[in-house]
Amino acid sequence: MNNRFKSTAPMRRLALASATALALLGAPAIAGAQAEKPKYGGNLSIGMVYVTLSPLSWDPTDWTWKYAQDTGLMHESLLAGDLTKSKSRGGPYPFTADSWLPSDAIRGELAASWKFLDNPPRAEFKLRKGVMFPDKPGVMKSRELVAQDVVDTYTRLDKSPKKVATFFDHVEKVEATDKHTVLFTFKQYFAEWDYRFGWGYYSSIVPKEVADAGAKDWKNHVGTGPFQLTDYVQGNTVTFTKNPIYWDKEMIGGQPYKLPFADKISYRIIKDESAYITALRTGKLDVLEGVRWSSVDELKKNAPSLKWNRWLNTGGTFMAMRVDQKPFDDVRVRRALNMAVNKQEIVKAFYNGNAELFAYPMHPDYTGYYEPLDQMTESARELFIYNPEKAKALLAEAGFPKGFSFKVQVCACSPDHMDLLPLIAAYLEKVGVKIEIQPMEYGAFLSAMTTRTHAPGYFMQNGHTNPTTSIRKSFVSKQLWNPSGWSDPEMDKRMAAAYAERDEVKRQRMIKIMTRDIVEKAPYIWLPVPYVYTAWWPWVKNYGGELRVGSERPGPIHARMWVDQDLKKKMGF
To answer: 361 and 246 in one domain?
Structure first.
């Protein structure tokens, strides 16, 4: 059970003890067969989960969800996932979630220790001493990370006009109480306090000198991380070079090794699916984090040495219907469109069984929060049963006996969505509803939603994030990632109550009920969630398919990989 947010004195003492124990050496240990002696040098070429997308912005105050993925090798956070708990190292967790860390799998990164205190509620972080920013000509001299860097980072985010509404409303103040201590004082207990500015999407500590030089320019960036950004070609490659003064080590076979292992890491950007599959097959990519099921059999045949990890997508696929516009302000219309789509057939025929019928808005990995469809209400289950006749009856009852038409926007960056949406259109046409499909480049696609100028239909994948955020960000009024425009004062109050609840068992029950309610009211056409594969060549060592140790943050994982260059050469690459 995920009890990360449960506040009890024994748990706080245990968390503090664990965090303090990690203070000297924050890196995971490798056990068993993986305990090979690492080799330094070599380059890694990686196609990340979102291999088709370039960085959206280099400035954290722009609040782009992809920022931590693109900069996680360079900018570090107070907290991160503890890879000693990964399945490949003998632990229980796959570390594939987009933004969820179990309570017993969090380690200090820039924080040497941390604790939660009461009266008033507050969190105290003790920073590691001796963590250095490297020299960056024209931007900053090499210097030590200090508490004021954390305060400055938080302040810039909090003052950003692009800030997600309510994101830091629970924070009273943030202050540096000494050179290496940061104190967050809260207005009230808030269940996501550690996620919001510990290991979340917007938790990267960026020095004031970078902001002063201009954080929108990648050339001005410098961080405490294992690599530094040295080149960026839009639409092609993001290149990182080894930071020679990096602070962290990795325990392998009982011995500490200085990180990172590779000399250079390149994040490749390849828009065409066949091109990035070919790049993997021919060894031009060492790792491809997101492979569609439809490419797996051919790759296993033509590149049998590849290693694999299969994981359930950490984002839900759906068509959002704008409830602030007709006809989608009528729940009968929204439910009708759900019944008109044969979701079981999509699982069997479109995904060839490589999908789960119901796995969004709550991910099955969220133990205690996830409720299987067969345990939900009949009203919710009905939306996943193909019933075109009832769909027609509901449309007629709502005043659309002959159906209607509307526009649907979709990102051309997703091969899966570009293939799936015409199938959805064919199902809807059988009940008289016609859609006009408008493919868009990702920048324009995202901008349409965030500026609320998007079409009545908006076809997308949205990350589950974590059990509470999954509901908040999409179904609380005026939230940025709320493409249906859902606004219900009662839902807003219930979400606030869930965040204020310290007892996680009670909070789980609250989230389950909210999930049931929103599924029944159908602001989206709920669609199956597919399985995805990660593939890598055997010369990539100290890796087991892990994807994130924070919010879309792969940096600490990639920094711990090493390249067996002799094996690569023997294999003919």
So the answer is: no
Q: Alpha-carbon torsion 222, 106, 258, 20, what sign?
A: positive
Within 82-207, where are the H helices?
147-159, 193-194
Residue 525 structural domain: 315-530
Verify that 542 and 526 share a domain, yes or no.
no
Whether 518 and 544 share a structural domain: no
Rounded-to-integer distance, Cα 25 and Cα 316, Å: 37
Closest CA to 79 of 103, 61, 48: 103
User: Is the separation of the CB atoms in 66 and 53 below 8 Å?
Assistant: yes
- What are the backbone angles phi and psi of residue 557, rounded to the nearest 5°? -70, -50
**Phi, psi (rounded to 5 degrees) for 254:** 80, 5
Q: How far, in Å, CA of 93 to CA of 82, rounded?
A: 10
Examine residue 304 and state whether it is found in any structural domain, yes or no.
no
Q: Which two tokens stand for residue 143?
A: 């210097």
Q: Is pLDDT of 254 > 80?
A: yes
- Asked if 524 contacts 319 with a C-beta cutoff of 8 angstroms, the reply is yes
pLDDT given for residue 17 in this prediction: 34
pLDDT surpassing 70 at residue 561: yes
> How many residues are present in the chain?
573
Percent of the chain with pLDDT over 70: 94
The per-residue pLDDT for 116 is 95
Q: What is the pLDDT of residues 391-428, one digit of tens each?
A: 999 999 999 999 999 999 999 999 999 999 999 999 99
Rounded to whole angstroms, the Cα distance separating 364 from 382 reads 20
Q: Where are the extended beta strands (E) located within 62-156? A: 79-81, 106-108, 111-117, 122-127, 132-133, 143-144
Beta strand 457-463 with 315-321 is antiparallel
- For 339, the enclosing helix (H) or strand (E) is helix 331-339
Q: Residue 65 to residues 49, 170, 322: CA-CA distances in angstroms?
A: 13, 21, 22
Phi, psi dihedral angles at 18 (to 5 degrees):
-65, -45
**499, 464, 468: which is closest to 314 by C-alpha?**
464
3-state secondary structure 385-441: CCCHHHHHHHHHHCCCCCCCEEEEEEECCCHHHHHHHHHHHHHHHCCCCEEEEEEEC
> How many CB atoms are located within 10 Å of the residue 278 CB?
13
pLDDT digits (tens, 9 = 90+) for 354-401: 999 999 999 999 989 999 999 999 999 999 999 999 999 999 999 999
CA nearest to 48, candidates 554, 466, 445? 554
Mean pLDDT of 3-14: 32
Indicate the SS3 state at residue 309: strand
Question: Residue 272: which CATH number?
Answer: 3.40.190.10
Give tens-digit pLDDT for 21-66.
Answer: 333 333 434 444 457 899 999 999 999 999 999 999 999 999 998 9
CA gap 327, 244 in Å, rounded: 59
334: domain CATH number? 3.10.105.10
Asked if 156 contacts 52 with a C-beta cutoff of 8 angstroms, the reply is no
pLDDT category at 259 given cuts 50, 70, 90 is very high
pTM as predicted: 0.88
